[in-house]
Amino acid sequence: MSDAAVRIEGLTMDFGKVRALEDLSLEVARGSVFGFLGPNGAGKTTTIRLLLGLLEPTRGKAEVLGFDTREKAHEIRCRSGALLEHAGLYERLSAEENLEYYGEIHRMPTAKRRERIEELLTSVGLWERRREPLKKWSRGMRQKVAVARALLHRPEMVFLDEPTAGFDPSSSAALRDDLASLASREGVTVFLCTHNLFEAERLCDVVGVIRRGKLVAVGSPDELRAGSGDERAEVIGQGFGEKMLRMLRERAEVRSAEITNGRVTIELEEKAKMAPLVSLMVQEGVEIEEVRRGRASLEEVFLKLMEEEKR
Amino acid sequence: MRDVWTVLKKELKELLRLHGSSKRTLLLMLLPLCAVGALFATMWNKQLLELESPAGAVFCVVIPLGMVIAVICDSFAGERERQTLETLLASRLPDRAILFGKMGAAMAFGWILTLLIMIFMRLAALVAKGPPESWGRVLGWHGGALVFAFPIWGLWASLGVLVSLRSPTVKRAQQMLSISFLVVCFLPAIIVGGSRTMQRRLGGAARAAEGVNPMTVALVALAILLLVDVVLILIAMARFKRSKLILD
């Protein structure tokens, strides 16, 4: 059995004259959480549709769980769960009936199906309301049912397109924990499209950044942050002044220095040491309370990649 | 077959929730049928319509047509409009199960409505005229009409699914199907009415059929209907492409 749950080679998709995906090549390891990041219209949804065999690529090939998306799409769909762009729930039916329907579609035995529905709806706090028609529910509640539907038949692979859209912060955190444990405990591979970079940073083992149909970066969140080369420090204290700022900016290891919200933010050259800069500030009369050093967040890396592409 | 049954069951369940609860929906569906029964009793008394006649049979199929068109058009266009189609297509259901499940639900709905109308009309006939002379003849007629109703609803279901497959909204599908209904019903009449040659040929065919056993005529008609159904179903199967359904 191949180690890759998803293997994409030179995948290109044209809609008439519009190129939605260009020469996309990618591998997602089994049992990992892969985050696919990109602005609207970047090609994330098209990629999921291609991987589920719902669209035929113009060029290139893709395999999911070892099955070719052109030849064996049915096998892929049998082993996958999907929450696509829309929740895709029948609003005249109740949460229980929606899940029953998809459980029957996946041919789950009645007893197992009912047990699993209870387990999933209880975990998202909706078991007591399972018989209410969904049309009366909020977007977030429906989204929880849609996530439950994607996980219902214990698939090997889960495709989730913005799963926490409409969730409150505690529900988002709970789903993140569930997805992380699904991947680690049950070996489920999660292919997650999201705009939520905080979510991607917390949850994903590997992230891919796509823009205008092209993959512009791929790696673990740490690798991407390290690769961006942005090292920074934040100094909290009293007595910052223009003279001190000028002196900092004149140093070779400092790329830039700014005072924002009563703090000094310093962008450093790679491997620059912070201690000489701290002594300089103390000499200039600054009372330092705290110095934080770190790399750029995934959000900053993402925005930088988008900017680079524009240029 | 199991997948077809899964889809069919869900379609009928959704249909029963059309107006909120199942009870409310059933009540709202049965009320017009009661009205049809009352209308029929009046027509019977005025000797305008007899139940055991070709016109009576047409009545039983034409009356529920509006309700059935609404249901058939909802099959794919409704799923597209309510944004449930893509998730359904991303499931493990085979193309044929989705197609036949939806067609089957529309057929079953049409057939059940025909049966209910027949029951209401028979009840109205009992009230208006009393018991029939021969229950055997009546039951035979009803049985035959119900057998014919199957391919007729099959024809509307396949035609409806064909239209619904490509329609962006339910309303558009309903308009298209209503136009198809007018074309199917009135175009032959217009062609025959406007051509003396056609009238002569039709008259000749009718005279020739007078000598033929009515059962043979019925079987030939049934075979033609089934053939048309099969052709329409094959066209629907050919047009069912997941990639096109998603992008439409």
Question: What's the helix-strand series of chain B?
Answer: HHHHHHHHHHH
On the 0 to 100 scale, the average pLDDT of chain B is: 82
Low-confidence stretches of chain A: none
The helix/strand class of chain B is mainly alpha
Q: How many DSSP-defined strands of chain A? A: 14
Count of individual beta strands of chain B: 0
Shape of chain A: globular
Protein structure class of chain A:
alpha/beta
Terminal-residue CA separation of chain B: 28 Å
The H-and-E topology of chain A, N to C, reads as EEEHEEHEHHHEHEHEEHEHEEHEH
Count, helices of chain B:
11
Q: Tell me the CATH topology of the largest domain in chain A.
A: Rossmann fold
Report, as a whole number of angstroms, the end-to-end distance of chain A: 42 Å
Q: What's the number of structural domains of chain B?
A: 1
Radius of gyration of chain A, taken over Cα atoms and rounded to an integer in Å: 24 Å
CATH second-level architecture of the largest domain in chain A = 3-Layer(aba) Sandwich
Q: How does this model look, in words?
A:
The complex is a heterodimer of chains A (311) and B (248). By secondary structure, chain A is of the alpha/beta class. Chain A has 2 domains: 4-225, P-loop containing nucleotide triphosphate hydrolases (Rossmann fold), CATH 3.40.50; 231-295, Alpha-Beta Plaits (2-Layer Sandwich), CATH 3.30.70.100. Chain A has 11 helices and 14 strands. Chain A has a 6-stranded mixed β-sheet, with helices on both faces. In chain A, helix 3 (95-105) runs parallel beside helix 5 (139-151). The two termini of chain A are 42 Å apart. Chain A has helices spanning 44-51, 73-79, 95-105, 110-123, 139-151, 169-186, 197-203, 221-227, 242-250, 275-283, 298-310, and strands at residues 4-15, 18-29, 33-37, 59-64, 67-68, 80-83, 157-161, 189-194, 206-211, 214-219, 231-238, 254-260, 263-268, 287-295. Chain A is globular and about 75 Å long. By secondary structure, chain B is mostly helical. Chain B has one domain (2-247). In chain B, 84% of the residues lie in helices and 0% in strands. Chain B has helices at residues 2-15, 22-45, 54-62, 65-81, 85-89, 95-129, 135-166, 170-194, 196-210, 214-239, 242-247. In chain B, helix 6 runs antiparallel to helix 7 (135-166) and helix 8 (170-194) crosses helix 9 (196-210). The model of chain B has no long low-confidence stretch (mean pLDDT 82). Classes of the chains: A alpha/beta (311), B mainly alpha (248). The A-B interface holds A 15, 49, 52-56, 74, 77-78, 80, 82-93, 97, 101-102, 104-107, 133, 146, 149 and B 2-3, 6, 9-10, 13-14, 17-18, 20, 82-94, 242-243, 246-247.
